[in-house]
């Protein structure tokens, strides 16, 4: 993995050594199915127990947060990635390594034109909604995948990055795309020493 | 499937979050498992003809379903041939992360409720109503008792 890269450029194409997955692609798909089915059943159960969409959304976010603070250890152990040196490296890591590892998809990353701390993950494919065609009746404010926001937020907090994570667009709500917005809350300090690779 | 870190994390979090409200929580957790059991059973038996009797359905549960979800078969299946079945798994995947021995025994119900629902839901999809209870003699082994309701 020793391709010479120009560290001065804002290089968004990163060579990641993905962890070797011994299971075949189909076994991997099966492995996710239980999670997807369970997630759907959980959302259905929460809709039964809570009348207001905001309550379900909050509950999912909180659960996601609790999962994220633990899952990050699993991620770091299995991916052996180097420490990220910028917000954009961090977001790229989430999109290209973490999402790929756990959900088998790679959202595309973009950043805001106006705020340098704000990034977007566009989910073209989202396994969580594989079995979901539309939101349940009377649940138009439900953020079906809100667990994901909590997971990202919790994981980031464990690596000392505070961020707000929400769905800024949602296909299930009628938008054209599904997009997660990550807004980092503190300015990352400039590292004075740049190490040559 | 249940060995995936994402599922493990979700299951553990559901056990904690839903059961923070005790009685109601176990029921909710079982409800989640029930829906999953129905769905999984549906997907796994799409190609196969329906089972000829309840023993066949239980065998499917102990073999195909258990292997798909828990990576191994049920170790022991017993029945009194009058509608009651006992399924024993000596290395229950969802408990093996917790402890070996007597530690956390009182927490065990939280970690079995989902699976009880799963079994109930799977059987329901196959046309059998049942009640399912579980106990942990010693970690990480678990026993599931299934009583088929006669309609």
TrEMBL record, chain B:
CDD domains: TRAPPC6A_Trs33. One of its GO terms (biological process) is endoplasmic reticulum to Golgi vesicle-mediated transport. One of its GO terms (cellular component) is TRAPP complex. Pfam families: TRAPP (PF04051). It is found in: Golgi apparatus, cis-Golgi network. Belongs to the TRAPP small subunits family. BET3 subfamily. This is Trafficking protein particle complex subunit 6A. It comes from Terrapene triunguis (Three-toed box turtle). The gene is TRAPPC6A.
């Amino acid at each position: 993995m020793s391709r010479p890269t120009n560290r001065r450029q804002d290089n968004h194409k990163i060579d990641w050594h993905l962890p070797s997955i011994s299971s075949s692609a189909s076994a991997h798909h099966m492995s996710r199915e239980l999670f997807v089915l369970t997630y759907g059943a959980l959302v259905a159960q929460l809709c039964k127990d809570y009348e207001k969409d905001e309550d379900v959304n909050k509950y999912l976010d909180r659960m996601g947060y609790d999962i994220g603070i633990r899952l990050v250890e699993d991620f770091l152990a299995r991916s052996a990635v180097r420490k990220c040196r910028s917000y954009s490296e961090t977001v790229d890591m989430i999109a290209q390594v973490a999402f790929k590892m756990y959900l088998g998809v790679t959202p595309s990353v973009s950043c805001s034109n106006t705020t340098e701390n704000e990034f977007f993950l566009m989910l073209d494919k989202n396994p969580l909604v594989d079995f979901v065609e539309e939101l349940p009746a009377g649940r138009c404010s439900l953020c079906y995948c809100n667990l994901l926001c909590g997971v990202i937020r919790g994981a980031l907090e464990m690596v000392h990055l505070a961020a707000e994570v929400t769905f800024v667009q949602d296909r299930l709500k009628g938008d054209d795309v599904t997009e997660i917005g990550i807004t980092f809350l503190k300015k990352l300090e400039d590292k004075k020493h740049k190490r040559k690779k | 499937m249940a060995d995936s870190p994402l599922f493990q994390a979700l299951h553990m979090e559901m056990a904690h979050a839903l059961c923070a409200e005790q009685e109601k929580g176990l029921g909710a957790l079982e409800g989640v498992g029930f829906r999953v059991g129905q769905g999984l059973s549906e997907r796994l038996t799409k190609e196969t003809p329906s089972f000829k009797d309840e023993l066949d359905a239980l065998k499917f549960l102990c073999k195909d379903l258990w292997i798909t979800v828990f990576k191994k078969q049920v170790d022991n299946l017993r029945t009194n041939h009058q509608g009651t079945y006992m399924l024993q798994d000596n290395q229950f995947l969802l408990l093996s992360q917790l402890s070996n021995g007597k530690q956390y025994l009182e927490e065990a119900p939280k970690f079995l409720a989902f699976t009880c629902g799963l079994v109930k839901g799977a059987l329901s999809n196959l046309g059998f109503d049942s009640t399912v209870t579980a106990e942990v003699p010693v970690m990480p082994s678990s026993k599931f008792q299934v009583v088929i309701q006669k309609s």
